[in-house]
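Database export, one record per block. Field names are fixed; values are copied verbatim from the stored entry.
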Amino acid sequence: MASLFRSLMQPIFRRPLMPAMPSLIRSFSSTPVQSATLNQVLRGCRKPQKKRRAISPVLSGMNAPAMKGVCIKVGITRPKKPNSGERKTCRVRLSNGKHITAYIPGEGHNLQQHSVVLVKGGRAQDCPGVLYTCVRGALDLGGVANRSSSRSKFGTKKPKKATVG
């Protein structure tokens, strides 16, 4: 009883609700953070960075991995400066109505006007303006004949084993 009475009579010390000095949050790096100099600000370091362009804008705009389209024109394009040759390309009207130029991979193809093709993203690096690739072995575009390596990229079945006997 006496201890209870003593505890009631003692003055109550309360902690302050907010600490007198906020605790400093130390960053991971020990080097101080430097702000931009006046010249850097005048040159434009505080401007927001430009948004990155999509590699295949029509497909990324539709949020689709591939789209079906109809060939309008089949032809060739010449590659950029250090390379030479003839890259097979086709002009395609996609199912959403947009017109694009697509690269036809592999050796030889059976595309002609009004052929239905499946177009995926992926540009032909040495052909300017060609941002799409036709999928081999899908719809009207056949696979590459006599292809032994990387067959899945060119729509070719595994060759049959010759049986002896």
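Remark 1: The mean pLDDT is 85.
Remark 2: Helices lie at 2-9, 38-43, 57-62.
End of record.
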